[in-house]
Each structure stands twice: as structure tokens, then as C-alpha cells.
Write a structure and sequence with these properties.
Helicase, Ruva Protein, domain 3; 5 helices; 105 residues; mainly alpha
Length: 105
Amino acid sequence: MSIPKLSAQDLERARTAATNARRKRAELKEQVRVGKLSLAKAIDVANDDEILSHLKVVDLLRAVPRVGERRAAVVMESLSIAPNRRVRGLGRLQVAGLKAEFGDR
């Protein structure tokens, strides 16, 4: 299968859409980082938004204050969440586990 040839306009639209999506995901992580949103609320917001639902779970966890790479990995392993899992791919028990682990943080 070959990659389709895109016009300059199509490429620019794709670049703009990708940039906007990255910014939107970064804004959500920043809101979690500064405490404006709890992890539980951020998961709910991300599940209701097509762009935010593509955010990796590990990136969202690492935005939580006092959660680094190691703690995020331990939590994800304990809840059987794959390292490359995105928010929209979480099961209801995994979501419940994350909410129980972090509460309103």
C-alpha cells in the first residue's frame, strides 16, 4: 500500500490539525499538573472528546503532581494497563482503579 500524495493545502490542513490536537492534549495535562483538574475529571473529559481520548495514559499520569515515570509504571502495571494504552482504550475496571488510586488529585 502506498502513501497517498497530498496537495499543499491538504498537507497544511493536516499539520494544523495535528498541532491543534497536540496543544489541546498539552492543555489538559497542564490543568492536571497545576491542580485545576483531578485525574478522575481529566479522564472523564478525555473520554468525551475525540482528540483528548488519544492521549496516552502514562502521559496523563505523569502530569499528576508527585507522579513520575516509576510510579506511573507501577500503577499501570498493577492495573494491567499496557504502556502504550490511550485513554479511550481503558476498560471500566482500569478507569475505576485509576480513580480509586488517585482520588481527587
